[in-house]
Amino acid sequence: MSVPITVRIPDDLAEFIDHETDNRTAFVVRALEHERRRLRYEQEIAHRLAAPDPTADAEEAAIVAATYRTKLDIE
């Protein structure tokens, strides 16, 4: 579902968007989704810093170790 909205933006921002894309709506939606993700990440970081989990470091190290891939040494 989507909700139509009308937004007024400065001319220079409209020119920037028009230069970057042919679809203003898609551009604005992507920018807003990006900002929403960024804010969620910031909130998660703040939450983790406020109440650190003592087992998190060990879990993260195990995940990194399990997924780490070394570069092939090809000569």
Please give the structural blueprint.
Blueprint: H1 11-20, H2 24-50, H3 56-67
Organism: Nocardia terpenica
Protein name: Antitoxin
Characterise this structure.
The chain is 65% helix and 0% strand. The protein has three helices and no strands. This is Antitoxin. It comes from Nocardia terpenica.
Shape: elongated
Structural class: mainly alpha
The number of distinct structural domains comes to 1
**What is the multimeric organization of the chains shown?**
single chain
Number of helices: 3
Please sum up the structure shown.
This protein is mainly alpha-helical and 75 residues long. It contains three helices and no strands.
Defining key terms:
75 residues, mainly alpha, 65% helix, elongated, single chain
